[in-house]
Amino acid sequence: MDGLSPMLAQLVNGLIIGSIYGLMALGLTIIFGVLKIVNFSHGEFYMLGAYASYFISQTLGLHPVLGIVVAIGATFIIGMLIEKALLPPLFENKVERKEEYALLVTFGLSLFLINLALAVFGPFQKSAPALTKGNIDLGVISLSSGKVLAAVIAIVVLLITLFVIQKTWLGTALRAISQDRDASAIMGINAKRLGSIAFGLGACMAGAAGALLGPVFLVYPIMGTVPAIKSFVIIVLGSMGSIKGAIYGALLVGIVESLGVIFLSPAYRDVYSFLILILVLLFKPKGLFGGAQWNN
Amino acid sequence: MLEVANLEAGYGKIQILNGLSLSANENKLTLLIGPNGAGKSTLLKTIFGFVKPSKGSIRFQGEEISSIPSHQLTSLGIGFLLQRVSVFPDLTIEENLKLGAWSFKRDSARVAQRIEYMYDKFPILKEKRKESAGLMSGGQKRMLEIARTLMPGPKLILVDEPSAGLSPKIAKEVYRVLHELKDEGITLVMVDQNIRESIAYSDYVYVLERGRVSSESAADEIGKNLKQVVESWLKF
To answer: pLDDT tens digit string along A59-117?
Structure first.
């Protein structure tokens, strides 16, 4: 049984990390679905979320869970404001090449936010305090309670988001915009306003992920790059625009990464997700949930 | 009800509407016909604000609406049936209908009552209400689009090619349903290529050519010299 428990521990670890990746990937999916753009600054909202919660828990010395709540609120508002400032030309027929515009704007935003963070917070890696201290002993395996709490919060945020998307007026309207923007305008839906909300929602999910993983990894200006790339891998893996795909894809990536660490080598941790991506695309070019739409 | 005056609009540098003027009377079906590229669909899109006019005015019940954003026209009482399929394919039929009530979503009693009314009017929608709208047949989708447009109780509905892509039998059914809307006091402005059929249901007909009205008359009159009108399109 000795050989089994490290594997089990890594499996649980993978699920924990996967649920947090899921948050981030779902945020990217919401933005992609409603605004039809790939948000290349997604990782920077992750970074901003991490700094926001670091500021609350370390600098102000308040409870880390409060830090997460503040991080979610702050990245939601920043996301909405940024969308209102930068993206309206996309929907007013003012730009000819919408995809290129979105790519350049969000990529530029990413560089801007990274350099802003460098100037404001400095280049040094900071370690945020754990959400809670101690371990949870399950007999076979022992887990850090901070990580478990992070996963629980991630799952709660995911479930709330899914509820909003599936069951509320706002969510139904967001799905409608993602499927047919003109028809939603005919219904009287203000797609411009809801687009800002969708961007804020997506951004704050990345912010939540950053705030949750800040205590696990370290907080620094370019911390969002690797998680952002992983979110791109996840949403392509799970089929662009599929909600189910974002969540299952994230869990798959989390588990494969964690198991790869013990079966192959910890040095290539960040490579495993690309391996699955290549394998999945070889056999299912449309991704795991190919053709599935935004509300599935 | 609806007055369009000296309207000019187009896409980028290409101007489609060249000083078009027409009016639609209350509780009548006004039909717009004309050759391809005459600007029929563009006119409807411009009235609904999808295309911004560069000149001219659009008045609905006396109010200038040309600068009002599309999504606010619904609550003024204007509906729009697009030519292409416009149901939300991955929403259920019930969710599609519900979104028709977006402009009065806070009044949940009225929302529920309107949905029930539509289910009575279109029983097939009730039967399939939990299914994805994308799985319905073409004719059923069109009925859902009509029901969804009727949800807020519009006064004017713009209709673009209602029978496009439908079999003759189903097209007839669609025309019948649209015609009945007049009994509910609804004004219709309709664009149609299916001229012979649609004239039978109309009250007044405008012929559009190159972004202008080239002739107009009561429907029963144009019916008589329809052949001449259509032949004249072939000349340029």
So the answer is: 888 888 899 999 999 999 999 999 999 988 888 777 888 888 999 999 999 999 999 99
Mean pLDDT score across all residues of chain B: 90
Asked if A293 has any chain B CB less than 8 Å from its own CB, the reply is: yes
Domains plus CATH for chain B?
2-90+156-233 (3.40.50.300)
Q: Tokens 């795909």 belong to which residue?
A: A245
Give the number of C-alpha atoms closer than 13 A to the C-alpha of residue A254, restricted to the C-beta side.
24
The beta-carbon neighbor of B95 closest among A172, A182, A190 is A172
Instruction: Lay out the sheet containing B187-191: strands in order across.
Output: B78-81, B156-160, B187-191, B29-33, B204-209, B212-218
* Per-domain residue ranges of chain A: 18-220
Nearest by CB: B71 against A169, A180, A185: A185
A175–B148 C-beta distance less than 8 A: no
A-B contacts (CB, under 8 Å): 69
Q: Which residue has the tokens 């039809």?
A: A36
State how far the Cα of A172 lies from the Cα of A160, in Å rounded to an integer.
Answer: 14
| Ranges under pLDDT 70 in chain A | 1-4, 291-296
Cβ contacts of A177 on chain B, cutoff 8 Å: none
Q: Which of B204, B100, B105, B218 is nearest to B152 (CA)?
A: B100
Per-residue pLDDT at A31: 94
pLDDT at B233 over 80: no
| ipTM score of complex | 0.89
Pairing, β B55-60 against β B2-11: antiparallel
Whether pLDDT at B190 is above 60? yes
Q: Please tell me what DSSP assigns to residue A15.
A: H
Nearest to A281 by CA among A246, A235, A244: A235
